[in-house]
Specification:
With 441 residues, the chain is of the alpha+beta class. The protein has 8 helices and 21 strands. It folds into 3 domains: 90 residues, OB fold (Dihydrolipoamide Acetyltransferase, E2P) (Beta Barrel); 92 residues, Irregular (Dihydrolipoamide Transferase), CATH 4.10.320.10; 223 residues, 2-Layer Sandwich (Chloramphenicol Acetyltransferase). The strands form 6 sheets. Strands 11, 14, 17, 18, 19, 20 and 21 form a 7-stranded mixed beta sheet that branches. It has a 4-stranded antiparallel beta sheet with strand order 1-8-6-3. The chain has a 4-stranded antiparallel beta sheet with strand order 5-4-2-7, with no helix packed on it. Helix 6 crosses helix 8.
Length: 441
């Protein structure tokens, strides 16, 4: 009997998934536990694992295509079964999942003009775009995302001349855009009337604006839905304090020198997470959620740390959760945060790794943002926005000196948290960061 693998429900709110990348091809042998593909859900890009042994008889969904949960994506031939017969049986047999819809067009606008291409078959319509390999002029293979292929067609760019920077050398959007800029950056020829004169310096390529419609990923749709819900249903208010983090910087430098031989490197964010966890123990009302039945104060501090995803993983952000953060020391916080962030940017997080958060920290300090206000991640009641540590003139003991200050801005749900409560909470974090030795015990 052929083994039919359908689009699984990889999150509690998932209704459809996008097949981002196949890790197998027809004819490959797979075993239980092998990774079959990368699938984009409404929350993250995750690995699809096989739970059976067999041979890949048919790939029913191309890279870049979308199908509903339960839609057929792959057929395996069981042990001793002919793959070709298994593929036929799966196609003709009853009980098949609904056929996968065609890939969504990455851009709605059709190109006005296309550069002529000699001896090439007509390009497929955008709706049928996929990540199937194209033959290159040299007989090799070109791996290219649907959006990158569409942009290349619009701009008349030869994909065989582009080196991809995506997974497995795949050509992605930024590679095509970079090639397009390079085409316009050719240096001007020297004037014919003055052959002895130096050629003018090449004009740096200027950004080109174009009207286009960008397809929205499942993750981006979910981000938009949740943030709109948050801003329209939760009465936000914010409070901000400036923390003196000069002593924190000194302590961090000392600890990192002492721990370097053990491969430990503490970040400023590790100290902030530790300070927030301790402050939440002191102010449990911040570690709460609003429900119709009443305000729920959680029995564990589970801090989520916002992680920005690279373009080839769909962009956007995810929030991995550090369970029982109040029980973790700086080393444990550092190790777990790095592991989850790395997994989020490469393999994708599981549902459990993004669930049960009670408080969130969003840190834009690494991007040199000195202050911002974050949107609450429901059903949580608060989120902490952290700015960069900036040297600036400050008054100390009646004298103007150079100090290092960091802004801490709490966005709070006014149904749960009063203004004075929020102020006391952020000042508790401020005091802990200004006396960083307290974070070590």
């Amino acid at each position: 009997m052929p083994i039919k693998i359908t689009m699984p429900r990889l999150s509690d709110t998932m209704e459809e998934g996008t097949l981002v990348k196949w890790r197998v091809k027809e004819g490959d042998k797979v075993a239980s536990g092998d990774i079959l593909a990368d699938v984009e859900t409404d929350k993250a890009t995750m690995e699809l694992q096989s739970f059976d042994d067999g041979v890949v008889a048919r790939i029913a969904l191309a890279e870049g295509q979308v199908t509903k949960v339960g839609g057929l994506i792959l057929v395996l031939a069981a042990e001793g079964e002919d793959p070709a017969e298994a593929a036929k049986a799966a196609a003709s047999g009853g009980g098949d999942a609904a056929p996968a819809p065609k890939a969504e067009a990455k851009q709605e606008e059709a190109p006005k003009e296309e550069a002529p291409k000699a001896a090439e078959a007509p390009a497929p319509a955008p709706a049928a775009a996929s990540d199937e390999d194209d033959e290159s002029d040299s007989g090799g293979k070109i791996r290219v995302s649907p959006l990158a292929r569409k942009i290349a067609e619009d701009k008349g760019i030869d994909l065989s001349r582009i080196k991809g920077t995506g997974p497995d050398g795949r050509i992605i959007k930024r590679d095509v855009l970079a090639a397009a800029e390079g085409k316009s950056a050719a240096p001007a020829a020297a004037p014919a009337a003055a052959p002895a004169a130096k050629a003018p310096a090449p004009v740096p390529p200027q950004p080109k604006l174009e009207s286009k419609t960008i397809a929205v990923s499942n993750m981006r749709k979910t981000i938009a839905k949740r943030l709109l819900e948050s801003k329209t249903t939760i009465p936000h208010f914010t409070v901000t304090v400036q923390a003196d983090v000069e002593e924190l910087g000194k302590l961090r430098g000392t600890l990192n020198k002492q721990l370097a031989s053990q491969g430990v490197k503490l970040s400023v964010n590790d100290f902030i997470v530790r300070a927030a966890a301790l402050a939440l123990l002191q102010h449990p009302v911040i570690n709460s959620s609003w429900t119709d039945a009443g305000i729920v104060q959680h029995g564990s501090v589970n801090i989520g740390v916002a992680v920005a995803l690279p373009e080839d993983k769909g962009g956007g952000l995810v929030v991995p959760t550090l369970p029982a953060t109040h029980t973790l020391g700086l080393r444990q916080i550092s190790k777990l945060t790095r592991e989850l962030a790395d997994k989020a940017r490469t393999k994708g997080l599981s549902v459990d790794e993004m669930s049960n958060g009670t408080f969130t920290i969003s840190n834009l300090g690494p991007w040199n943002v000195d202050h911002f206000e974050a949107i609450i991640n429901p059903p949580q009641a608060a989120i902490l926005a952290v700015g960069a540590a900036i040297e600036q003139p400050v008054v100390k003991d009646g004298q103007i000196v150079i100090g290092t200050r960091m802004s801490l801005t709490l966005s709070a749900d006014h149904r749960v948290i009063d203004g004075a409560t929020a102020a006391v909470f952020v000042n508790t974090i401020k005091d802990l960061l200004e006396n960083p030795a307290t974070l070590l015990v």
